[in-house]
Hints:
Blueprint: H1 2-12, E1 17-24, E2 27-34, H2 40-52, H3 60-71, E3 75-80, E4 86-93, H4 96-101
Amino acid sequence: AGEALFNVATHAEATKVEVRVSSSDNGLILSVADDGVGDPRALRQILRIEQSSNGTVGHRGLANMAHRAEQIGATFSLRRSNLGGLQVRVAVPRSSTERESS
């Protein structure tokens, strides 16, 4: 959430940002959405380039968020937000041991 909010403040030229956290039996979803200028398609391309460049391109914020999500078994996505800008979404599944103890 912190890195996504930093990106909104630094790059998005947004006037609104919305942070949501929701929980269900399936897991947790964190969403940071804005009304800024970010283009999800272009940012997904930048992310792919950065992930394959071993950190030499310079857009480490997105790559770091995606890497941290992967480390905990979560999915990371970039899409158009309902506010008109970018939505960064991380879906964290409940672990199988958590489901068994519930």
